């Protein structure tokens, strides 16, 4: 559980709405904002730089709302939440409620509103290559993930040389692992990783075959996802030393949510 910094009923006059007159004439919007963070350090130091300045938050919400015109409250809330999480490094999550007291519905009501919560998520990504300049491909993959809006790469393992997996005769691999904070959903993150693979000229011709760049989501928070094109945790991570060895460098105590074992425990079991 996180502590909260809260701003209640901040009024902003802006030009959001579906109807043309809403965009032209504008109307009042009322915001309630919560920023989730750990305030213990601030409580001990009594220094503003150790916290998030709620005066700055109120000014930012006002300016952002006035300068980013959209049609729907849902879009306004989504974009504002992401902008705030990217702006305030100490924030682990945010709640945005937008009320529209002058909603042109034509019926007696106090207001229409939308409320969302968004958080940073903790993802681990395996990276590998066994074609061409392997290190250059891995470096390209890391750099490309850094450049994804809504992603922060916090840790990168050493690159390790490993034998190919799956019985296909091919060159040795260079493998690594990354820890990433992300605002993207698992599917959105997968889509971005597949885009990066394509930019590295990845071709999927042979299952477990050679590839210029391979990017896999190994874990995402403590989510368990089983869908047609996405399984989290990665279905065979506990069987693969080329995943567990670099992952153990950056997250030895990370716990598999289904097997209830740490990465170090899984690696020790695999080594036998």
UniProtKB/TrEMBL annotation:
Catalytic reaction equation(s): 6-hydroxymethyl-7,8-dihydropterin + ATP = (7,8-dihydropterin-6-yl)methyl diphosphate + AMP + H(+); 7,8-dihydroneopterin = 6-hydroxymethyl-7,8-dihydropterin + glycolaldehyde
Pathway: Cofactor biosynthesis; tetrahydrofolate biosynthesis; 2-amino-4-hydroxy-6-hydroxymethyl-7,8-dihydropteridine diphosphate from 7,8-dihydroneopterin triphosphate: step 4/4; Cofactor biosynthesis; tetrahydrofolate biosynthesis; 2-amino-4-hydroxy-6-hydroxymethyl-7,8-dihydropteridine diphosphate from 7,8-dihydroneopterin triphosphate: step 3/4
PROSITE patterns: HPPK
Keywords (A to Z) from UniProt: ATP-binding, Folate biosynthesis, Kinase, Lyase, Nucleotide-binding, Transferase
Entry's EC annotation: 4.1.2.25, 2.7.6.3
Stretch forming the signal peptide: none
GO biological process: folic acid biosynthetic process; tetrahydrofolate biosynthetic process
Regions that span the bilayer: none
SUPFAM superfamilies for the chain: 6-hydroxymethyl-7,8-dihydropterin pyrophosphokinase, HPPK (SSF55083), Tetrahydrobiopterin biosynthesis enzymes-like (SSF55620)
All residue ranges annotated as the 7,8-dihydro-6-hydroxymethylpterin-pyrophosphokinase domain in the record: 207-218
InterPro entries: Dihydroneopterin_aldolase, FolB_dom, GTP-CH-I_C/QueF, Hppk, Hppk_sf
A GO term for molecular function: ATP binding
Family: In the N-terminal section; belongs to the DHNA family. Belongs to the DHNA family.
Function: Catalyzes the conversion of 7,8-dihydroneopterin to 6-hydroxymethyl-7,8-dihydropterin.
Protein name (database record): Bifunctional folate synthesis protein
Protein's organism: Mogibacterium diversum
